[in-house]
From TrEMBL:
Residues 68-150 form the Lipoyl-binding domain. Pathway: Lipid metabolism; fatty acid biosynthesis. Pfam families: Biotin_lipoyl (PF00364). It comes from Novosphingobium pokkalii. PROSITE patterns: BIOTINYL_LIPOYL (PS50968). It comes from the Bacteria. InterPro entries: AcCoA_biotinCC, Biotin_Carboxyl_Carrier/Decarb, Biotin_lipoyl, Single_hybrid_motif. This protein is a component of the acetyl coenzyme A carboxylase complex; first, biotin carboxylase catalyzes the carboxylation of the carrier protein and then the transcarboxylase transfers the carboxyl group to form malonyl-CoA. This is Biotin carboxyl carrier protein of acetyl-CoA carboxylase. Keywords: Biotin, Fatty acid biosynthesis, Fatty acid metabolism, Lipid biosynthesis, Lipid metabolism. Transmembrane segments: none annotated.
Length: 150
C-alpha cells in the first residue's frame, strides 16, 4: 500500500489558496518522496487551480505491488485509478459502507477523486464488508486495495 502523502487534502487546498493570492501562476514542489504541482487558472481564483502529484523513485514498484495484491485476493475491491479515496460523499456525511454492511455489485463503497473528478467505486460483486482498507482521504494508486468483502 502506498504510504500516506505527508500533505493532507487541506494542506493542498491551503497551498492553492496562497498561490491564488500571490503573484505566481504555479508552484512545483519536489521532495525525495513526492512531487506536487499546483497551477492556477487564467482568472487567478483558487477555484480554478489544478493539482497533480506523483511519488518519487519507487512509485511504479509500489503501484505494481498494490495491483498484484488486489489481483491475488478476489475479496478485495481495488481502486480503479489513482487519486484520493473518500469513504463518504462529503465531509460529515455517513460513510458509503461500514464493516458488516451487505453490498451488491452496484453498491458504491467509496469515491476516488482524480483531477477534481469524483469517480464512484462499485463493489463489483455481492458480499459483506469485512474491512475498509484505505484511510479516508488517503492517496491511492491504481489497483490499491480499498475494501475487503467476505
Amino acid at each position: 500500500m502506498i504510504p500516506d502523502l505527508p500533505l493532507t487534502a487541506e494542506d493542498v487546498a491551503e497551498i492553492a489558496e496562497i498561490l491564488a493570492q500571490s503573484g505566481y501562476r504555479e508552484l512545483d514542489l519536489a521532495t525525495r518522496r513526492f512531487r506536487l504541482r499546483v497551477a492556477r487558472a487564467g482568472d487567478g481564483s483558487a477555484e480554478g487551480t489544478t493539482q497533480e502529484w506523483q511519488w518519487a523513485g519507487d512509485a511504479p514498484a509500489v503501484a505494481e505491488a498494490a495491483g498484484a495484491e488486489a489481483v491475488a485476493d478476489p475479496d478485495v475491491i481495488a481502486s480503479p485509478l489513482p487519486g484520493t479515496f473518500y469513504h463518504a460523499p462529503q465531509p460529515g456525511a455517513p460513510p458509503f459502507v461500514a464493516v458488516g454492511d451487505a453490498v451488491t455489485a452496484d453498491t458504491v463503497v467509496g469515491i476516488v477523486e482524480t483531477m477534481k473528478l469524483m469517480n464512484p467505486v462499485h463493489a463489483g460483486r455481492a458480499g459483506t464488508v469485512a474491512a475498509v482498507l484505505a484511510a479516508n482521504g488517503a492517496l491511492v494508486a491504481k489497483g490499491a486495495p480499498l475494501v475487503r468483502l467476505s
